[in-house]
Amino acid sequence: APQDGFPVLYAFDADLSFLALANMAQTVGRMARKAKLAPPMVVAIGYTEPGIWTKRRTYDLTPPTDIRKMPKRPNGQPWPKTGGGDAFLDVLIDEIKPFIRSKYPVDRSAETLSGHSLGGLLALHALHTREGAFDRYVASSPSLWFGAPETSEKLIAFQERTASGTSRKIPLRLTVGLAEESPTRWHARSGESAESRKAWLENGRMVGNSKDLAEALARIDGAIKLSFETYSGLGHAAASFPALYQALEFAVAPDTFYQIAD
């Protein structure tokens, strides 16, 4: 273990993310050691019971919102229960983090929270509601349409509130695929109505919402230190993979992202 402990990447959606992160962490770990940096540890949170992932994450990864503000789903089905994000964060912060710290040497100044889609939304929600719970945040293709525009407005308000009298910076990595507002070749084979899927993607404004948030945060010199990137040619699912790899790099050395951007 590194002298100061491992930087830890806490990731949502372990059912999809953990195997990819575990493989990627080997590469990032080798590169980190060559650069005389600590390699990352991955802690991903998922479900032991098969088949419940979609339903559970819709509740666990969403902030409280007025269900009447929710858009119509492409499949025409009613929304399952939502709004359990704060309870999920309580478990992560009050139970899982102490458990990991009791078992492994952890660098308590380098704990990163990462999520994709609804997970990205909850990571952003945690940033402005649980200040200090994590040191860095990664929001990949966040579902900012959920309860729109509540999460974006609250993050911008947080940035404005911390624009004076704060010296602490909170690194935030925000990414989105540039093809996330258009149907992919796979949608035509899914059996969904092409028009309903097209309308869902356009109304969801995955790219537009992310860009709008990035521009608003960048205009204000507050606590959030933003790194924003778009992935050319990638849809919603595909955009998660470069984001996962870069989340590991961000967990190890976030400053390198700002050096490259400058």
Overall description:
A six-stranded parallel sheet has the order 2-1-3-4-5-6, sandwiched between helices. By secondary structure, the chain is α/β, with parallel strands linked by helices. It is globular. The chain is built from nine helices and six strands; from the N terminus they run βαβααβαβαβααβαα. The mean pLDDT is 91. The chain is 44% helix and 16% strand.
Short synopsis of the structure:
By secondary structure, this protein is an alpha/beta fold. The chain contains 9 helices and 6 strands, in the order E-H-E-H-H-E-H-E-H-E-H-H-E-H-H.
N-to-C order of helices and strands: EHEHHEHEHEHHEHH
Percentage of β-strand residues: 15-25%
Main pleated sheet: 6 strands, parallel
Helix content: 40-55%
Give the termini separation.
32 Å
Radius of gyration (Å)? 18 Å
List the helices and strands and how they pair.
Elements: E1 6-11, H1 14-34, E2 41-44, H2 53-60, H3 85-103, E3 106-116, H4 118-129, E4 136-140, H5 150-161, E5 170-177, H6 194-204, H7 206-218, E6 224-231, H8 240-252, H9 255-261
Parallel strand pairs: 1-2, 1-3, 3-4, 4-5, 5-6
Descriptive terms for the model:
262 residues; 6 strands
